[in-house]
Amino acid sequence: MGHSHGPGHHHHPHGHDHDHDHGHDHAHEQGALPAAFDTSVPDGELSPEQRSRRSLLRRAGLLGAGLAAGSVLAPQPAAASPAASAAARSAASGGSRRNGFLWLAGDHHIHTQYSSDGKYRVVDQVRQGAKHGMDWLVITDHGSATHAKIGVEKVNPDIKEARSAYEDTLVFQGLEWNIPAAEHGTVFVHPGKNEVSVLKQFENDYDGSVKGASGNSPANEALAIAGIAFLAEQVKQRKVQDALMLANHPARRGVDSPHEIRGWRDASPVSRQIAVGFEGAPGHQAAGLPSPLGPGRARGIYDNNPGADSFPGYPLESYRTWGGFDWMTATVGGLWDSLIAEGKPWWITANSDSHQVYADTAARGGGDFNGNGRYDDPVYNGQLDLAQGDYWPGYYSRTHVGSDGFSYAAVMDGIRAGRIWVDHGQLISALDVRVSGGSRWATLGGALHVKKGTRVTLSVEVALAGGPNWAGFQPELARVDVIQGDVTGPAKDKDTFTAPSAKVVKSYEVGKGTGTVRLSYDLGRVDRPVYVRLRGTDGKRNGVGVNGAAVDPNGPVLDVVGDADPWKDLWFYSNPVWVLPS
C-alpha cells in the first residue's frame, strides 16, 4: 500500500539517513522498545515504574502487537510466543513495517528549579512523567539572563542523570524561548555533544528577555525569524542532529499575530522545518478549578485582556480557552484552519506547562536563584497547596506522536511530520486515522495525492478509555466530529485568521466508555484540494460555535473564569490530513 506524504513535499522520506551524533544513548537510536512495551520482557524483570507503565498499557489494550506496535487498521499478528513478540518488536521499531507507527505520549513544556517560577528537580518531573505514561519529555526552563548565563549549562548533568535513571523515557533538553515581539515557545534539540552550546548561543543571541526585544516592533519580529534561521543552520552544519520550535499558549495575551506565526513557519526550509506548530491546548489546566478548593482562575491562566502589544484584530473571546483549548484551535474556521487551508504544515500539541502542581505538599527550596541559576531542592510543606494551577506531565494533557521507533530522532521526525493527536483526561486510549483513495493512503499530517475524481474515504478507529484516568473516573466518549475545509493556497493577507469553507461535515454519536469504535466518512469523488481533521468530546459542555450553527453546531464553549473544572469538559483533537487531487 503506497504512503503519500504531505502537501508541498514537507516531509522527508522515512528512510532519511541521519548523521548520528554518538554523544547519547545508542540503544534509543536503534529504536529499541521501552521495556514496558516489550512483551518478551517478563513482568518480574521490570522496575516498579516500568510495571506501572505496563499495567497502564495493558488496561488500555495498548500492549504487544496491538495499537502501540502499529496501525490499528492493519492486520495484527498475535504475540503468542517469544518469536512472535520479537517479530512484533522488530515491526514496531521500524524494521520491516510499512504502515504502522509506535505511538509515544509526551509533553514538550515542563519547568524545574532552574526556572525563576519553578520548583521541582528534573528527576521529579521525569519520575512523575514516567508514572503518568509519558514516553518523552522536554525540559523547558524559562529563557532569561540567569538561565542563559548559568542554568542552560547547569541543568544538563541533571538531564543526563534522569536519562540514565529512566531509560524508558526520552528526556530532551530545551528551553522556553521568549519569542522577540511575541509570546513564549518551546525550543529543543536532539541530544548530543553540542546540545548545551547550541541552546546557550541561541538564548544569548535571540531570546526576547535577554536581548530586551519583547516589544512589538518590526526589528524584534525580524530577530525571531533570525533565531529560527539560526537553529536551521545548526542542523544544516550538523552541530545538532535536529531542532524544533513550537509556540506556547499562543492566544493567551494576543501578542502572536497571524503574520508572525506564518513568518515563523516559513522561516526555515520546508524539508527541515524548525517552527512546526503551537499548543492547541495550553498547560495550567487546574487553574480553572473553582475556589476554595482550587485557584479560581482560568484554564491555562487565560484571564487576560488586550494590551499595547496585542494584535488589534483579535476579538475579546480569543483571550479565553474553549473547552480547555486555545481559541486559535477551538474555533472551526478560525486561525488554525486558516493556516492549514494554505496546504502547509502547522500542528497542534497539548502540554502541562508544569511549574508548581495543584494540591502538592512540597514547597520551593531556598537559595540564591540569580547567583546559582537554580533554587535549592524542594522541601516538605506540611499542607496541600490549592493555589497552584498545574498538573504533572501526563496527568491531564497528552501529546501522542506516531514514531518510526523508540528514539529521540523518531519522536522529532513524528512531530515534524504532524503524526500527532492530543487529548485531555485520557478521554480515549488510541486513535488511528486513514484517508484512502485509489491504492494509496495517508495518515495524520500527510497528504493523499490522487487523480481528480477519485473516491476518497476517511477511516477512523478509536480505542476508548481503558480504565480510570488520574482523577479516578473512566471518561466516556460521546461524539466524534469530522471537520473539513478547502485548501485555498497561501494567504494573500498574512494576518488572515479565518477559513470560511471549514465546517463540521459529520458527527458520530458514540456514547460508550469501553471497547473500540470504527467510523467511516465518504468524501465522495474529490475534485478539489481539501483537508479533514477530527475532534471528540465527552459531550458535557457543548454549544453553537463562534462562526454559527451552520459551521459548528455543537462545539466547545467559552470557559468561565473562576469556574472551569477541567475534568468536566474533555476533548481530543487530531492534526489534519490533506487530499490533493491532480
Quick description:
The chain is α+β, with helices and mostly antiparallel strands. The chain has helices at residues 26-29, 48-59, 82-92, 122-131, 145-165, 195-206, 218-236, 258-265, 327-330, 335-340, 369-372, 408-417, and strands spanning 2-3, 102-110, 136-142, 170-178, 184-189, 243-247, 275-281, 347-350, 360-363, 379-385, 397-403, 420-424, 428-437, 440-442, 447-450, 454-464, 477-486, 503-512, 516-526, 530-537, 542-543, 555-556, 571-574, 577-581. Strand 13 (428-437) and strand 14 (440-442) form a beta hairpin.
Describe the structure.
By secondary structure, this protein is α+β, with helices and mostly antiparallel strands. It contains 12 helices and 24 strands. The strands form 4 sheets. It has a 15-stranded mixed β-sheet that branches. The protein has a 5-stranded mixed β-sheet with strand order 1-14-13-16-19, with no helix packed on it. Helix 5 packs antiparallel against helix 6. The N terminus is likely disordered.
What Rg is obtained from the alpha carbons, in whole angstroms?
A: 22 Å
**Pairing-aware structural class of the strands and helices?**
alpha+beta
Provide mean pLDDT, rounded: 89
**Uncertain stretches of 5 or more adjacent residues:** 1-30, 64-99
Helix content: 10-25%
Tally of helical runs: 12
Overall 3D shape: globular
N→C terminal distance: 20 Å
How many DSSP E strands? 24
Q: What summary fits the major beta sheet?
A: 15 strands, mixed
- Beta-strand residue percentage: 25-35%
Task: Note the topology.
Layout: E1 2-3, H1 26-29, H2 48-59, H3 82-92, E2 102-110, H4 122-131, E3 136-142, H5 145-165, E4 170-178, E5 184-189, H6 195-206, H7 218-236, E6 243-247, H8 258-265, E7 275-281, H9 327-330, H10 335-340, E8 347-350, E9 360-363, H11 369-372, E10 379-385, E11 397-403, H12 408-417, E12 420-424, E13 428-437, E14 440-442, E15 447-450, E16 454-464, E17 477-486, E18 503-512, E19 516-526, E20 530-537, E21 542-543, E22 555-556, E23 571-574, E24 577-581
Parallel strand pairs: 1-14, 2-3, 3-4, 6-7, 7-8, 15-24
Antiparallel strand pairs: 2-11, 4-5, 5-6, 9-10, 11-12, 12-23, 13-14, 13-16, 16-19, 17-18, 17-20, 20-23, 20-24, 21-22
